[in-house]
């Protein structure tokens, strides 16, 4: 299948490239970074990368040596969509999801590699430690004291719509090539996001077709492109994506593998902001305007402002969740919310 010509994306400014000397240098760079950057060859010494440089089949064989005999979740799209994993005309998904053993899935990939037109096959966000033995130990980035979730993404030629993630992300290409088109977090209004509950993979996505944008339906997308960056990664290269930056991801070869690492700067016991947004839609959005305005002021007071005046009049030791949260107080608050929501 010939690659679609995304000339619009290729003309964008490139994500800056940097060099890092060692794990300590990478750690310092990540702590200081506020924008994306590329490190060429960061994981070039991985055995998985070496296998992939021989062939896609060699990379798959390497993964099969480490996989656990458990069912994997795989998404299979439809032909003729240029690998785009997206909605169908009825706002359902244009792909189906199945479960199967990895050797069986890879047998389908073997056949797809020889076909001029084949449906996209995609294994997304597979936990490396849960589904493989020894793969992480032989192929990983030293991220210091970060408690990072390592995931692997395996597939044929695919296009994943622009979305963002709450954690920071270090994405490492092990096989094939990846093109990332990135936008600062504040560009969400110009990306024309779809539903926040009915999503292909849990995050709201841009409704814009990046290979064929409709500027009549999506005129503000031109403004988004004025702020966009693009990175094309080869095997061994890595890209840092800061928290909440939007990214459109393309697997450009017949077979592609990405390993990525997600981590938060905040404790794991803190809640997910997306859950708060979902609850606010249910509880606040459709209130009368005067009531919504009052709740906006309360949110500013307790959440976004959170100044000393919020608690100054309350005796120390009696401020409950208005004090800085701990694992214990967050646990009590979560239990309270669960009781309220279950009524």
UniProtKB/TrEMBL annotation:
Residues 98-278 form the JmjC domain. Gene3D superfamilies: Jelly Rolls (2.60.120.10). It holds the Pfam family Cupin_8. PROSITE patterns: JMJC (PS51184). It comes from the Bacteria. This is Cupin-like domain-containing protein. It comes from Sphingomonas oryzagri. The lineage of its organism: Bacteria, Pseudomonadati, Pseudomonadota, Alphaproteobacteria, Sphingomonadales.
């Amino acid at each position: 299948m010939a690659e679609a010509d995304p000339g619009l994306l290729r003309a964008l400014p490139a994500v800056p490239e940097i060099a890092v000397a060692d794990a300590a240098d990478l750690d310092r760079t990540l702590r200081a970074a506020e924008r994306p950057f590329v490190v060429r060859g960061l994981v070039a010494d991985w055995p998985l990368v070496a296998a992939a440089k021989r062939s896609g089949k060699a990379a798959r064989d390497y993964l099969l040596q480490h996989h656990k005999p458990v069912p994997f979740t795989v998404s299979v799209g439809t032909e003729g969509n240029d690998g785009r994993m997206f909605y169908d005309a009825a706002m359902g998904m244009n792909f189906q999801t199945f479960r199967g053993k990895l050797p069986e899935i890879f047998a389908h990939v073997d056949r797809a590699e020889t076909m001029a037109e084949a449906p996209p096959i995609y294994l997304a966000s597979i936990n490396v430690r849960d589904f493989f033995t020894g793969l992480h130990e032989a192929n990983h980035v030293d991220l210091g004291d970060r408690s990072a979730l390592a995931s692997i993404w395996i597939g044929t030629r695919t296009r994943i719509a622009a979305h963002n993630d709450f954690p920071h992300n270090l994405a490492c290409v092990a096989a094939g090539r990846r093109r990332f088109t990135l936008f600062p977090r504040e560009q969400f209004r110009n990306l024309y996001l779809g539903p926040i509950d009915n999503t292909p993979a849990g995050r709201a996505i841009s409704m814009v077709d990046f290979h064929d944008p409709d500027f009549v339906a999506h005129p503000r997308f031109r403004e988004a492109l004025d702020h966009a960056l693009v990175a094309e990664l080869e095997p061994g290269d890595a890209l840092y994506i800061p928290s909440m930056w939007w990214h459109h991801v393309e697997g450009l070869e017949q077979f592609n593998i990405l390993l990525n690492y997600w981590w938060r700067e905040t404790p794991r016991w803190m809640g997910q902001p997306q859950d708060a947004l979902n609850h606010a839609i249910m509880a606040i959005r459709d209130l009368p305007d005067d009531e919504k305005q009052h709740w906006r002021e309360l949110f500013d007071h307790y959440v976004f402002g959170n100044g000393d005046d919020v608690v100054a009049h309350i005796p120390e030791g009696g401020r409950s969740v208005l004090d800085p949260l701990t694992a214990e107080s967050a646990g009590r608050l979560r239990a309270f919310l669960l009781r309220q929501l279950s009524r």
